[in-house]
Please model this.
Amino acid sequence: MDFKLNAEQELIVEAASEIAQDFGPEYWREKDKNHEFPEDFWKILVQNDFPGIVIPEKYGGTGMGMLEMVLAMETLTSEGCGLAGTWFLCLTSVFGALSIVKHGNEKQKEKYLPQIAKGLEFCLALTEPDAGTNTLNTKTMAAKEGEEYIINGEKIFISGADRSKGMVLIARTTPQENVPKRTLGLSLFLVDLPNAAVEVSPIEKHGINYSRTCELYISDLRLPEENRLGEEGKGWYLILDTLNPERMSFSAASVGLGLLSITKAVEYAKQRRVFRAPIGAHQAIQFPLAEAKAKIEAARLLNYQASWLYDNGQPCGAEANMAKVAAVDAGIAAVYHAMQAFGGYGYAVEYDVERWWREINLIRLAPVTHQMALAFIGEHILGLPKSY
Ligand SMILES: Cc1cc2nc3c(=O)[nH]c(=O)nc-3n(C[C@H](O)[C@H](O)[C@H](O)COP(=O)(O)OP(=O)(O)OC[C@H]3O[C@@H](n4cnc5c(N)ncnc54)[C@H](O)[C@@H]3O)c2cc1C
Model:
């Protein structure tokens, strides 16, 4: 791929940068402190067609791809919005739009995609309390009765479920003991929310408090067959097409949070003087920031490559997992050393580093845990025996 941005991509970066300038650190501090959804920020993203970046023009989007989405996410994050831009775009455009673009039928595309391009919020209900990382242990059951599915089960950590109007739900259509292969028997469904059969209960969490992450109790949710997304029983394979771009999104966020922290730490380290020279002259402060910068730039290119492969219909799992490992490690190092550069002020809410620290630590746990991304690399790239 050619790493020079084309004119359209330059425009996306410019637009994202302009939006980010309008939402300064005070805005995000307040939203995080008050646990308040950033309505005006989301409205501006929608007005500027950001949710539609990955939606074909035919369905009201701008017909670009994951590479352009990654550029938008990275820029919104690095120019001051922290995780927020990436977070909301991932929920709606990756979980919602891309799942439907890839696997929806014409009717589903016509129903949802133009609305998503106009800001209809989506979420993804995959994780379960007893299955955790092991999605193949999904217990939520979708039992077929005539032309309908009746769904019962429980989901945990479902971000945005409190206000989303649409949800991609993964459930079991064949009991685990009856499938010929472990990866078969799961199916995807499109669920309109709110729904009386889906009880949504927010979970108090460590950061990203401007958005809620919820537990769902699903009891006798009746869905017509037409709400199934893609082929019955093949949900595991279909959801991978959503999980790889989700990894790219959070790699973009790690790159962005890392760059944002470095920029702020460098500004501070140039002017803060407690002994003879500014603190940025001390190697103990300067070198870790320099090292994080080098590693972030490397991870960024790998993530562009993963996105480009995805957009060009080529296998991208290896690059997506490696980019995720590299980006989150480099991003965490950057925020950690930025906090050190700020000294005691790094611990004060007013300087924002503590908020970015709370945000970036999530990325080791979700979307894929760091260990599971490493297990993927060990097994599928290095050819080592499966470690679990
Ligand atoms: C804020 C937040 C938002 C989220 N949003 C969503 C969402 O919108 N939709 C959704 O479906 N999910 C969401 N998740 C869920 C997230 O993807 C899971 O938390 C994550 O996949 C890990 O599952 P778990 O918490 O059950 O951990 P577990 O599976 O219990 O794992 C616990 C620890 O053990 C390690 N471990 C487990 N098995 C192995 C192994 N074989 N080898 C090595 N280490 C192993 C893991 O890496 C992890 O560190 C969210 C989570 C959080 C915290």
Observations:
- Residues 235-271 form the longest helix (37 residues).
- The mean pLDDT is 97.
